[in-house]
């Protein structure tokens, strides 16, 4: 199997494992992350197969989406071996997808990712900001019965991983201050930072408009 055929199989595998998700991690998210990773990798000298495979697979072993992550890792390694992805490449892909999530950057748990991982992480984070990011936050917040906004509840200054997952008293608007507005400065590659500028401005404009309307100022 050549690498294009391998990627088709990997895409199908990801699709089979992601289509059920209704928390903003559906296959549409995967498609956007793959497209952005492809775009970012053209300006960097990254291995295409590892980058795109990790982009397709970055959510299939997530502990908040699968009941048994260890089992998911085993199943995934077997699948990659079956389609002829080499052992070292499989290890790189697994290392990236096990260490790239935003939650991993809390608690000082961040590990240095290889270039391919930095690109996929940037692509994943870019999908959490801008117009898409606004939509996903509202979608996620609605799914988890968060309040839209409550000016009496202050955004949490900094969070551990456990606190990030604790949604008591969380509001959709506070999520912007706790996570989304901070993403811009966490990005790895210059090209992603460039793309984030415009997306950041859209979020700031949205928040300003939202608060003005909330307070009947407009
Ligand atoms: P990741 O898998 O990148 O760590 P998450 O599962 O934390 O991402 O988040 C998935 C999407 O839902 C992102 O767009 C994120 O901004 C949004 N989201 C996460 N937590 C909240 C929250 N408490 N309120 C609103 N949106 C959220
Ligand atoms: Ni993702």
UniProtKB/TrEMBL annotation:
Source species, domain of life: Bacteria
InterPro entries cross-referenced by the UniProt entry: HD/PDEase_dom, HD_domain
Pfam families given in the database record: HD
Coiled coil, from the record: none
Protein name per the record: Phosphohydrolase
Domain HD/PDEase intervals: 22-138
């Amino acid at each position: 199997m050549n690498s294009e055929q391998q990627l088709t199989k990997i895409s199908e595998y990801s699709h089979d494992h992601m289509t059920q998700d209704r928390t903003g991690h559906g296959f549409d998210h995967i498609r956007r992350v793959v497209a952005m990773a492809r775009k970012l990798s053209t300006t960097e000298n990254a291995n295409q197969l590892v980058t795109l495979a990790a982009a397709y697979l970055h959510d299939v072993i997530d502990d908040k989406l699968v009941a048994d992550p260890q089992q998911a890792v085993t199943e995934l390694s077997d699948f990659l071996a079956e389609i002829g992805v080499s052992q070292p490449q499989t290890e790189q892909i697994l290392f990236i997808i096990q260490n790239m999530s935003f939650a991993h950057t809390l608690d000082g748990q961040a590990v240095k990712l290889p270039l391919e991982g930095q690109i996929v992480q940037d692509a994943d984070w870019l999908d959490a900001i801008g117009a898409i990011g606004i939509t996903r936050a509202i979608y996620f917040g609605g799914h988890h019965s968060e309040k839209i906004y409550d000016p009496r509840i202050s955004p949490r200054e900094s969070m551990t991983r456990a606190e990030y997952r604790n949604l008591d008293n969380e509001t959709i608007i506070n999520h912007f201050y706790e996570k989304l507005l901070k993403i811009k400065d966490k990005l790895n590659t210059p090209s992603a930072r460039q793309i984030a500028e415009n997306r950041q401005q859209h979020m700031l404009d949205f928040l300003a408009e939202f608060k003005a309307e909330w307070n009947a100022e407009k």
